[in-house]
Amino acid sequence: xxxxxxFSIIKPDATxxxxxxxxxxxxxxxxxxIVASRRIRMSEDQAKSFYEVHKDRPxxxxxxxxMTSGPVVVQVLEGEDAVKRNRDIMGATNPAxxxxxxxxxxxxxxxxxxSVHGSDSDENAAKEISFFFTEDEIVx
Length: 140
Ligand code: CMP
Fold this sequence. Notes:
four-stranded antiparallel β-sheet
């Protein structure tokens, strides 16, 4: 299995509850390496652009408001089959449907305040990584 990269966000509900370390430990325990990490306050323009794919969904406005409501930690994760590995440890988008032992089952408050974002494909991972990081900021 090839070593690949994915993109992760620790969301405002998790940073607010001081869960940056807890989430990061679950990612690392799942075999993912944090090869870039930065704590930021996302601007409205950044959040709108990052989530543009959801712009016609009814929750888009609230999603943008939530993602700009507090600090987030943007990360690049590296590991074997990183996109799938990260999605497996994150669990289902809706924490009510997430399996035991996943990040969202353990920490998420709701479908919106669901603690983490992770890329859904290698193609989107590359786009999302380059949205926040330059190649020289990623140290494997
Ligand atoms: P994320 O992986 O960051 O991608 C889009 C986000 O929209 C998703 O996680 C959820 O947190 C958020 N969201 C809010 N409401 C909904 C909804 N009804 N269905 C799907 N995603 C939602």
